[in-house]
Amino acid sequence: MRWIERLPIARERPVIGMVATLAIVAAAWLLRTVADPLLPPGFPYVTFFPAVIITSFLFGVRLGSLSALLCGLVAWYFFIPPARGFVLTQGAGFALAFYVLVVATDLALVHWMQVANSRLARERETNRILANTREMLFRELQHRVSNNLQVAAGLLVMQKRQLNDVDAKAALDEAGTRLALIGRISRQIYDPSGTAQPLVPFLDELCRSVVDASGRCDVTLSVSGDDRIRLQPDAAVPTALIVAEAVANAIEHGLANERAGLIGVEVWRDPTGALEITIRDDGHGLPVDFEMDAGTSLGLRIATTLARGQSGRFHIADHDGTLATLALPAHLVATEE
């Protein structure tokens, strides 16, 4: 009910407020005159109390006070015996005192309500400005961090050109790629409000960027799962790096030698609430002598370490191709109802 915060209205146009006040008083007078034959004695203010409340509510306490004064005089003159005169009898004095008490209470309550609404509106506007400023600063910081990571990745690429050792070049190239990936992740996963982010759309964009970066046009990617599943911000980068590593590994090894194929990423929660992300390809499968714990691949070691750092596990196995599974505990995910 934000419209209440705009009251009183016509503050910048006092003439309009004055005319409206006189109209409300006249309407109350006319209505009381019409109803007079139908009312028992002793109700001189029955239409004037609402007029005072409406006027003060719409136009403020000043015009409300004017309305109270005019309504009181009209009621005294026309409807408090002896009628057609300002005669101050004991009964008239008691009726007027009652009227003053009621309208003073009404005016005070309306005034306090409008002051509170005005203060609330100012605080809401201040909070809106602060929220906008916070979001702007957050995005600026996020942008700078991402840019710095991209610069660091570029420096590694430049440093690679100074080396002759093939393994050293490959190591720097891999490190630069991961830094660039972290930079891209940081742009899209964090929200200024700190809320958990939808996981399936995020992984879909991430995995497609990995496929695009590989230069392969013969790889079909599908990402599916419950769109309500959200990822806590602290788990974003590690989870993204693990999934990206698994997709890149599927392209490099499972679909090696330009073998066309499919990569499917599926996100779901088991009955205990734990999260499982599977990355499946229909490629060559694992080597016969492959052992997860004895693997020499830096990427797999990083993925395993990151998963353990989140109290989860990462595993690769043969399954009509290769099946990589990332399991994370329930406290790292949330489901939007």
Automatic annotation (TrEMBL):
The record's section on SUPFAM superfamilies has: ATPase domain of HSP90 chaperone/DNA topoisomerase II/histidine kinase
Q: Which InterPro entries match?
A: HATPase_C_sf, HATPase_dom, His_kinase_dom, KdpD_sf, KdpD_TM, Sig_transdc_His_kin_sub2_dim/P
Entry EC no(s): 2.7.13.3
Q: Which GO terms describe its molecular function?
A: ATP binding; protein histidine kinase activity
Keywords assigned by UniProt?
ATP-binding, Kinase, Membrane, Nucleotide-binding, Phosphoprotein, Transferase, Transmembrane, Transmembrane helix, Two-component regulatory system
Q: Among the record's GO biological process terms, what is one?
A: phosphorelay signal transduction system
From the record, give the transmembrane residue ranges. 12-31, 51-79, 91-113
Coiled coil location: none
Cellular component (GO) terms are:
membrane
Q: Where is the Histidine kinase domain?
A: 242-332
Q: Per the record, what are the reactions this protein catalyses?
A: ATP + protein L-histidine = ADP + protein N-phospho-L-histidine
Query: What is this protein called in UniProt?
Result: histidine kinase
Taxonomic lineage from the root: Bacteria, Pseudomonadati, Pseudomonadota, Alphaproteobacteria, Sphingomonadales
